[in-house]
C-alpha cells in the first residue's frame, strides 16, 4: 500500500482462547483449525446504524520449536444488517509474538507502533456486506522464552473511530515442550519460558493492569479507564511511503 492511516485504538483488555493450528517443521501451516473465538474483544465507538463489527482468532496455535514460526488466521466479521463501508483491520504483535506478514496488508512503520509493540500491519477492507467476513493469513514468530500478545482493532477508514478491539491478549503455555517438534499455545495463558534461565518474576502479571502500555514519540498516551476498559487511546499516523 502507498499510504497509511491514523490509527486510534481503544478497547478492553481481556483474555480469550485460540483455535487449533498445526505447524509442520520449519513451516507455518494450518491443519484442521478448530472454532474461532471473539473472546477478548469489546465494542468501543458506535458503528454506523445496522453495522456490527467483530473479529475472531484461533483458540489454539502451535509454534515450531526450531524455526519459532507460527500461523494465525485473523477474521473480521460484519454481524449487522447493513454494509460496513470502508474499514481497517489492524494486526499488532507484542513481546514474544512478532507479526512478520499479513497477506494483502501493509506493514506499519516501526516508528509508528505504540511503545511495547514490536510489529503491526494495516489491512484496508473496502466493504463487508451484512453477514460477510474476511480472513487474513498471519505469519508470525513466537519467542518461547517470552510471553506474547496480539491485538486486532477494527477502525473506520480514517482511523478516527475504533468500532471493535480484540486484545491485546496473551497466549502461551504453562507446560512448555522444548524437546517436541512444536509447542501448543492457548490465548489467555501467560507463557512459561522454555529457555533455561527465563525469569518468570519478570513476566507480566495476570490481570488487566499488565496491559497498560504507554505510547511514545507522538505524544499520545495509552490510558486506563477503570471498569470501562479503555486502555488504548491512539496509534500514531503511519508515515506515507514513496512508491
- Poorly predicted runs are 1-33, 197-243
Q: What does the main sheet amount to? A: 8 strands, antiparallel
What best-fitting shape do the alpha-carbon axes yield?
A: elongated
Give helix % range: under 10%
**Number of beta-strand segments:** 13
- Please tell me how large the radius of gyration is: 17 Å
Alpha-beta classification: mainly beta
| Run of helices and strands | EEEEEEEEEEEEE
Q: What fraction of the residues are assigned to beta strands by DSSP?
A: 35-45%
How many DSSP H or I helices? 0
Span of the ends, CA to CA: 9 Å
Mean pLDDT: 74
Notable features of this structure?
13 strands, 243 residues, disordered N terminus, five-stranded antiparallel beta sheet, mainly beta, single chain, disordered C terminus
Please outline what is shown here:
The chain is built from no helices and 13 strands. With 243 residues, the protein is mainly β.
What would your notes on this structure say?
With 243 residues, this protein is mainly beta. 0% of the residues lie in helices and 36% in strands. Strands 2, 4, 6, 8, 9, 11, 12 and 13 form an 8-stranded antiparallel β-sheet that branches. The radius of gyration is 17 Å and the shape is elongated. The N and C termini lie close together (9 Å). The N terminus and C terminus are likely disordered.
Write the SSE topology.
Elements: E1 36-37, E2 41-43, E3 53-58, E4 60-64, E5 69-78, E6 87-95, E7 97-102, E8 106-107, E9 117-125, E10 133-142, E11 148-156, E12 162-172, E13 182-187
Antiparallel strand pairs: 1-3, 2-12, 3-5, 4-13, 5-10, 6-9, 6-11, 7-10, 8-9, 11-12, 12-13
Amino acid at each position: 500500500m502507498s499510504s497509511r492511516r491514523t490509527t486510534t485504538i481503544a478497547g478492553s483488555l481481556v483474555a480469550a482462547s485460540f483455535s487449533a493450528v498445526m505447524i509442520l517443521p520449519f513451516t507455518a501451516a494450518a491443519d484442521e483449525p478448530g472454532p474461532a473465538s471473539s473472546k477478548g474483544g469489546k465494542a468501543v465507538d458506535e458503528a454506523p446504524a445496522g453495522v456490527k463489527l467483530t473479529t475472531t482468532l484461533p483458540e489454539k496455535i502451535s509454534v515450531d520449536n526450531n524455526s519459532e514460526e507460527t500461523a494465525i488466521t485473523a477474521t473480521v466479521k460484519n454481524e449487522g444488517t447493513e454494509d460496513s463501508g470502508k474499514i481497517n483491520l489492524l494486526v499488532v504483535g507484542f513481546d514474544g509474538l512478532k507479526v512478520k506478514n499479513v497477506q494483502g496488508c501493509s506493514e506499519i512503520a516501526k516508528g509508528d507502533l505504540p511503545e511495547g509493540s514490536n510489529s503491526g500491519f494495516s489491512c484496508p477492507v473496502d466493504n463487508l456486506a451484512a453477514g460477510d467476513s474476511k480472513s487474513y493469513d498471519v505469519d508470525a514468530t513466537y519467542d518461547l522464552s517470552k510471553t506474547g500478545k496480539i491485538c486486532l482493532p477494527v477502525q473506520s477508514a480514517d482511523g478516527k473511530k475504533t468500532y471493535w478491539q480484540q486484545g491485546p491478549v496473551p497466549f502461551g503455555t504453562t507446560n512448555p515442550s522444548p524437546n517436541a517438534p512444536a509447542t501448543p499455545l492457548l490465548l489467555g495463558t501467560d507463557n512459561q519460558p522454555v529457555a533455561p534461565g527465563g525469569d518468570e518474576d519478570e513476566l507480566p502479571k495476570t490481570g488487566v493492569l499488565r496491559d497498560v502500555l504507554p505510547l511514545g514519540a507522538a505524544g499520545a498516551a495509552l490510558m486506563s479507564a477503570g471498569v470501562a476498559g479503555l486502555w488504548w487511546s491512539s496509534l500514531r499516523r503511519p508515515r506515507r511511503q514513496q512508491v
